[in-house]
Every structure is written in C-alpha cells, then in structure tokens.
C-alpha cells in the first residue's frame, strides 16, 4: 500500500510540474472513480499469501536469504513467466477478449501508477497464476527466502507502477553503459505507447519479445528521447494556497486519490492516521518551500496551484507571521522569475493583518511585473448575487474584511439596509464606507433579520438566537459551523467551473466536484 501510494504521489507531483510528461492530456473524475479499486489486488495478495503461509509446507518460517533461491527467481521470471505473459497479453488484445475484459484497463489513455492494477477480476486471477510460477516454485523446491519472495513481489510492483507513471525518468547513460539493457528493461515511454497505440509494445517488463516478434513500436526510441528533454511548463497563472485543517492534507491531490476526489467530510477512520498527521505537522515547521499540487488548462491559459506548507492554525500564531510572509514573498518572486503573469493569493495568504491583502509584497518589490490579486471583487459579486431578490435588510456579522466592505457599499447603493450587532463592526464600516443615506447602516439590537452575511467570528450563541428559516451566506473563505438544522447555510463564495477548464479531478476542500472558490 505504501509503495503504491508513493508512486501515486510522485506521479501526480510530476504531472503538476509538467516536465518529462508522456501523455499531456486532461485527467477526469471518470477515470479516478474507475481506478478506485486499485487496492483490491493488494487485499487479494494478502489473502493468498496468508493461505500459502498457513497451508503449504515450506510457506512459513522462511530464512532471510538464500542465494540459490534468488538466482532461481531471476531465471524463472526471465523464462517461464515472461514468454507466456507476452502471448497472453497479445491474446487479450483479440477483439472478443479485449472488448469483454482488457478494455477496462485500456480505458485509461492517461496512465497513472494505479492504472497498472485496474483489471477485471478474472484478469487479476490469471496474472496471479502466471506470476505465482516463480513464488510457488521457490516454495515447493525449498529455496524460498524472504529476500526472494518479497524482493520478487516488490520488483513486479515497481516495474508495474513505473510503466504506468506517465513521466520519463530512466537516464540515457544507463543504456549507454550497458546496451543490452534495452532488451531486458522497458521504460515508462515504452509502455505509454502501448496505451496510446494499443497494438504494439506488449511486454510489461522486458521488451525482448517485442523485438523478436516485431511488435515494438517504431517510435519508442524517439518518444523516449523527446520525453527526457521535455521541460517544465511555465504557467500563465499561479494560485497560491496553503494547508487548511490537519486531516485535509490527505485530501490534497498528492494525497489519497479517493479522498481528494470528494469534498471533505469527517471520517472516523482518519483518526487512525493521527500519528502520520502529527508527523506532517512537524514537517511544516521544518520544510520552508512551496510545492506544486495541480496544473490545469483553460483554453490557451496554463494554471498551476502552489501550496504554502503551513496549516491554517499556524497563520494565527504571531511566531509564524514572518516565516509565512517570507514564503509568500519567495513564491511571488519565483513566479516572477519564471515569467508568470498573474499570482492569486488564496485563503489566509491574503490576510489584512498578515500582509495587507498582498500590498506589502508589491511595496517591497516595486519592480514586479507580475500581477498579485486576491479575488475579493469576485467573492463580493458572488455573495451579492446569492442574496434573494426582494431583500430589504440584511445583518452583517463577522470580521470586517475588504470583501465585507465591498458588499456593504453595494447593498447601501441598492437601498438595502445593512445591520450589525457589534459596535466595533459598526464603527469600522462607518469609517470605511461612504454611506448613501442615514439609515443604510444601523446598529441592531435584535436578531430578527432573516438574511445573515457572515464572516469569521460567528458564534453558536448568535446562531441559536436567529429565527427559524434564516439564511446564512458566508463572505469569508471558511464556512461557519452549522448549529441549526432549521436554518439554511449557503456555500462559501464559489462558482461552477467551465467545462473548458481541463485536468480537474479533485475537490477543493469542502466544495463539491467542479466547483472552485472565488
């Protein structure tokens, strides 16, 4: 499980960077959902291993190392396993077998490491029978050892994941140093052609039989050379976000794909991950560089998402303020150096107290050509359009931000009365707003308003006092905790994304699929 997850995370990270990619096309939710069964074969492996261990003589209490067993494993794989596999794979591409079985695997043109084990159950059984020639022979001959059994299974997993990782990384000097290696070990680009051309490059680990039976794709070497030279794509736009709650790290695109492809909800089994979660928290105190998590395409525009390795809670600690500001500034300067046109500050990276909505960095670096934006205008527009038509008064409660001020100004111009509960909120709005009429902004003593525009700071006590059917519309980027079942809670400022935005296959925090925050 760990071995596969490492491959998944590395592959997704390399896809976000864009260098050495083999198939640069959009990955969709449909493929992610279809490949959620990738751990089935691991569970099946555990069951089979347990049965062998408990029922077969020589299947338990294995020595750590036996040289004869290791040599035998190599010879068995190179002969009795490789040859039948080649012809089995060619047979699976026959019209009947392909349409009824193998097409499920080939539905993934853009291969990922877990694509390697996504097969029909009957196919998995055949593969297990084939690869068990090696392991069962070792056990039956009494030459098995932990090194030969575990080593062989790890080798099969490694080569399988490597062939489907969708980026080239095997160095050219390796084949120059030992030319016959090209017949004994394939590359990711070699097997990628099998998934795009279908009728070539059949063998999974050793291209030898593709050479012998003339089924090797003639463009194999060319694709290998081109992929090694392919450089990282320079994005037009970078969105700079950060880690939020502790368990949301698993919802990152680099994390667990099953969680990343669905909106965040609390799950009991995540508590079992707390030791690893705490370790990730400790790493954020040490690691001081942004990292890539996503790359999207919107018509001719390339977009990347970068993450500051800090959790939301760390943004509220004064001791972290300078280090966070330094990380954000470094990201802006790095984006400027790469030629990025626009950088948007996401979540708490645009805090007023932290950096004045990004203005600090622009003042420090007046020579910047990159545009630093925060999306506040769009967020305000979304909130305003979420207010039901015919509304005459709203109550604004929460931290007064640039978005809150923009909303209040527009509502006052429309003749909609804006009420506040707190004196300091009223005073801050009064100072920052040019009020259209005397009664456009009032300090309310009641909770009778049915439309509440809420930001950070809304309490449980306040929610319990509102009338039944009240509509809470957040203007902050974090949703309020829901304490009333008889009230309505709108989503945070967000929009459905256009179908032209490609390579979207994970959910942003608590938002549903194909929805993006302002």
TrEMBL record:
One GO BP annotation of this record: lipid biosynthetic process
Pfam families: CER1-like_C, FA_hydroxylase
Fatty acid hydroxylase domain boundaries: 83-215
Intracellular or extracellular location(s): Membrane
InterPro entries named among the record's database cross-references: CER1-like_C, Fatty_acid_hydroxylase, Sterol_Desaturase_Related
Presence of keyword Signal: no
Entry GO terms, CC: membrane
Residue ranges of the TM segments: 70-88, 125-153, 268-287
GO function term, MF aspect, one: oxidoreductase activity
Keywords tagged on the record: Membrane, Transmembrane, Transmembrane helix
Bilayer topology annotation: Multi-pass membrane protein
UniProt keyword Transmembrane helix, yes or no: yes
Residue ranges constituting the Very-long-chain aldehyde decarbonylase CER1-like C-terminal domain according to the UniProt record: 394-518
Family stated for the protein in its record: Belongs to the sterol desaturase family.
Full protein name: Protein ECERIFERUM 1-like
